[in-house]
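User: Please fill in residues for this 358-position structure.
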């Protein structure tokens, strides 16, 4: 039996779980108040604080450290990596501490995992990190040589959905072709083909969502950036946190929007239906990469619990392929299953090498 410690640090919480093989022993989400995080200048400085909370949680749940056989963490913002597992090493910890691609709470996950694993003499891994980028060269090209399309986004959840579909069909992940749409605070769409995520419409260029603007008319964006008082920080906040449903309807809660629609709010219905159509258009947009030869379209993420949304998407795209709904985003289970595949010899863990000049 393998006993895995699973780590998933977020901006205001540290989620952890212990699994005995595929079975969760316990899960916990440790919430961090703004006051607790205020003393830390950057995410890396939170490492010891969060590590000690993880160790305390294990002690409180009577999980002996020496009973663990491996640790799996959500991957931080590394330079572009491949999908799958990477064994956490000195280079990865150095990268996340000194040259991360950006500040993100998940950066400390590998640090915590490496510390505890080294004490115990057990392996530690990340799996399907945030910065997985497997786009084929032709899919990276844009109209400016200085800018490339990228695959950074909801890789952990979308790849877990694709692998679940493959298992249910009795096939290998390498032998399926699926489009996966992650429906959450941000919405992304990606194409899984030949065992890789060959194309990816990120939540910065794709559909608008509860929080994000998605793709916008470029000339208007440029003009807005030069309006009096406009700043980089302000524009980033606008497109990442104040766009989409929030901008149009004053809420990021899709359930409240559906309540308004049920009560007869025609404007809410128009905006919500436009979001659904936007999702469908981007599913269609990614299909030509495989000439429309698709086994299935998978809908996942929190908003996939909504029949209103999923049935609306099916209405538009079911002509392409069968639509299957895997609601929610069970990241802890996805990390555990990824770690188990490595420990059982079904996958090999890759080695990360630092990149000093990002």
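Assistant: Residues filled in for all 358 positions:
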């Amino acid at each position: 039996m393998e006993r895995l410690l699973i780590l998933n640090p977020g901006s205001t919480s540290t989620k952890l779980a212990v699994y005995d093989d595929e079975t969760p022993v316990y899960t916990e989400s440790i919430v961090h108040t703004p006051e607790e995080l205020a003393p830390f200048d950057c995410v890396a400085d939170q490492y010891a604080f969060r590590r000690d909370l993880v160790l305390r949680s294990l002690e409180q749940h009577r999980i002996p450290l020496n009973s663990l056989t491996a640790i799996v963490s959500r991957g931080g913002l590394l330079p572009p990596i491949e999908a799958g597992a990477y064994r956490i090493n000195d280079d990865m910890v150095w990268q996340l501490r000194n040259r991360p691609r950006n500040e993100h709470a998940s950066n400390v996950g590998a640090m915590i995992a490496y510390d505890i694993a080294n004490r115990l003499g057990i392996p530690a891994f990340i799996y399907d990190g945030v910065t997985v980028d497997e786009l084929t060269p032709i899919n990276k090209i844009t109209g400016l040589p200085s800018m490339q399309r990228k695959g950074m986004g909801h890789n952990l959840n979308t790849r877990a959905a694709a692998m679940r579909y493959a298992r249910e069909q009795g096939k290998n992940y390498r032998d399926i072709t699926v489009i996966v749409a992650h429906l959450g605070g941000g919405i992304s769409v990606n194409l899984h083909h030949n065992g890789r995520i060959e194309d990816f419409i990120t939540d910065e260029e794709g559909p608008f969502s509860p929080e994000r603007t998605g793709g916008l008319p470029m000339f208007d964006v440029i003009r807005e950036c030069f309006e009096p008082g406009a700043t980089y920080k302000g524009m980033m906040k606008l497109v990442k946190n104040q766009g989409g449903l929030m901008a149009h309807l004053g809420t990021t809660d899709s359930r409240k929007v559906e309540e308004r629609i049920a009560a007869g709010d025609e404007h809410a219905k128009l905006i919500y239906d436009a979001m659904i159509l936007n999702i469908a258009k981007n599913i269609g947009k990614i299909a030509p990469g495989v000439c429309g030869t698709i086994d299935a379209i998978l809908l996942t993420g929190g908003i996939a619990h909504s029949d209103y949304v999923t049935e609306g998407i099916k209405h538009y795209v079911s002509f392409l392929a069968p639509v299957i709904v895997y609601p929610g985003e069970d990241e802890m289970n996805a990390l555990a299953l990824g770690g188990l595949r490595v420990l059982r010899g079904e996958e090999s863990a890759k080695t990360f090498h630092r990149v000093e000049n990002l």
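For context: The longest strand covers residues 23-31.
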